[in-house]
Amino acid sequence: MKLSRRGLIGSGSAVAGLAAGFTAGDAYAGRGDAAAGAVATTYPFRGEHQAGIVTPAQDRLHFAAFDVVTRSRAELVGLLKAWTLAAERMTRGLSAGPIGPTEGAPQAPPDDTGEAIGLSSGGLTLTFGFGPGLFRDDHGRDRFGLAGRRPEALADLPHFAGDQLDPDRSRGDLCIQACSEDPQVAVHAIRNLARIGFGTVAVRWSQLGFGRTSTTSTSQATPRNLFGFKDGTANVKAEETDALAEHVWVAADDDQAWLGGGSYLVARRVNMHIETWDRQGLQPQEDVVGRTKDTGAPLSGGTELTPLDLSARGADGPLIPVDSHVAVVSPERNRGARMLRRGYNFVDGSNALGGLDAGLFFIAYVRDPRTHFIPLQHRMAGHDAMMEYLRFTSSAVFAVPPGAAPGEYVGQALFT
Amino acid sequence: MRSALPAALLLALPALAACTQNATTDTSTAGGTGTIDVTATDTACEVSSDSAPAGTLTFQVTNGGSKVNEFYLYSADGKRIVGEVENIGPGLQSKLIVTAEQGAYLTACKPGMSGKGIRAGFTVHEPASGSAAPSTDQVLVSKAQNQYRLWVQRQADTLVSRTRQFVTAYAGGRDDVARSLYPQARTYWESIETVAESFGQLDPRTDAREADLRPGQKWTGWHRIEKDLWPQRDPSYTPLSAHQRQVYGDDLLDNVTTIRDGIGELTFTTDQIANGSSGLMEEVATSKVTGEEEYWSHTDLWDFAANVKGARVGYEDVRPILLGRDRALARTLDARFATIDRLLRQQRAGDGYRPYTDLGHTEVKRLADAVNALAEPLSHLTAAVLP
Questions:
Q1: B255 pLDDT more than 80
Q2: Which stretch of DSSP H or E encloses residue A54?
Q3: Closest-CA residue to A189 (of A133, A251, A123)
Q4: How far is CA B242 from CA B163, B166, B170, B239, in A?
Q5: Quick check: B387 pLDDT over 80?
Q6: Phi and psi (nearest 5°) for A238?
Q7: What average pLDDT does the structure give for chain B?
Q8: B21 min Cα distance to partner chain A (Å)
Q9: How many CB atoms neighbour CB B151 within 10 A?
Q10: Residues 87-116, chain A, touching B (beta carbon < 8 A)
Q11: Looking at this predicted complex, what is its ipTM?
Q12: Which residues from chain B sit within 8 angstroms of residue A168, using beta carbons?
């Protein structure tokens, strides 16, 4: 399935991968030329788990959070059905609607917006999540008769030291994570899904990301974040079946059965004080991260994949400083908790003072935010030397239902 | 206005992009008859025939009297207007084209435009041999076209009278009165904005915002006067002299009067009505909900409400046709119009609306969401009601 991309992206640049790997699948080719789909550049929308979690992280992101504006449960379910159909089509490289961007009646707006004509899906995945507000609104009202089915762990994140959240780009009742090797394909997907949703949902905020900052498969090389460091070396990987079951997938008997096989998605927009960071010496930068900037090896020695040795000491104390990022968030200092990170770099131009409005759009998938995210974030906020260069501007948490089986719509188990 | 198209491009457009001139030939599509001549005087209403076959009827009305006249086709009980032409000046002609089913009707002239009029019976009998009876759909289309034309004409008439009041107050230096009349008069512009915009050059001369101007283009119209009445955002602004006020005011009144007169000549097809409805919601989305239209006065919500009203009238006009073709779309549009009306009612203040600058981000976002929720399904109306 995913064979064509592994060697390409692992050994060369993502751009080379795009050029070599994605020429065969012509977008919308399914309409006229089924053979074009033979080259595997798509990930199936349906399955035990939703795609876009352990799927090898694509290079581009468009993430959108929505407010549900209808009061009708039937309309909400109708939208999830319509989204499922459109999402399944688009992940196959087809148009959003069955008619197509140029095939419809001349007086009617096309049911696909058209900017993905001629593009392959770029390995598009669309991953849907449910926020706490879907179960009870801000006034505590049980909007859709779902309050009794809210898992305990699905609650707004607490305030963390250093949070300067923009309420207009935090939280959300629903979310869609669109990932593709092609930014235009990811944007096209969110745009068309938002359009289908008008009147039932309204876009609350959205975020573009580029340059995946994590690897989710051992086949991928570790990328770099905007601090210039390799990021996500210690991530849970697709190949670690046991670790995924322990740290990422919610078990059916964890809490609410409908979420079994799903996960929790934590999203945090982390602005970096880029210009300040760039004025730090190389050694101080490495002390903040706990790894070398060059190879990503831990400061305790070895190569990138060598385990941390937090006890290794040099003349002035631990080789890996206790307040370094890797030390603060390491599983061994956090009751063994691990997460599957799937974040992206972002640059939203420059701010009013000429600094880059840039950083990391952090996305993590965890089995339970109360054990796998919140304690780590508190530790980081309190002890991590990196905090001096970070400002958290957006925060959201979503329950990500399991994958839809054939004939089902996404999240169906919640409503039945 | 929709956008700052270069004037040359506007001129190059087919004379009236959104509308069509009254056809001079009989446009019968079903049944079809010759033209029925109506001679209206101050005391009589002579109709050349008291019956016609079912289908498209054309009444050619000539005002031979000294009073302004009107001509109506009513249902037999005189309660339902089947078709109507207004404002026929002495010595002038006008045309009523209407698709009528078999049945009994009344004709009426109304010299002086008041009272019950001079009425007479009129029979629509079975269609001429070889022609099919008009379908229910055709009758609905005809009714929609006539209703909308009439409504637009009335809005345009009120636009002229309200603009005259506004210009009088403004030129007379009664600024407080002018400031209260400004958004009221604008309401009648905004409700038919998509029609008014079809008048090429006249639209930018009437409704251009300062930011829309090309280098060297003279700024005239509503927004030029708006800035003079609410100059607070421009500390270096030099107020217009009394003479300039008169000049700009007269120019505005002249232009809206010309547009009104032009509107009197227009007819609308159902897809044009639907396009107009959809276009008005685009106006809301691009310049009203953003607070750009009334940069100086912040009376954007008046325009917003007027655009929505115009969109609603157009929609309701073609709704009976839509019901026979796409009932689900009609249900959705009914609900979405109701939502946006409810939100607008929450913004009412006095006889109008709160200033845009008083709205918080959440209120604006809620309005914008409602605009999207309505505009998206409304964009499918045209294809659904195509002739």
A1: yes
A2: none
A3: A123
A4: 18, 15, 9, 9
A5: no
A6: -55, -30
A7: 88
A8: 21
A9: 18
A10: 105, 107-109
A11: 0.80
A12: 361, 365
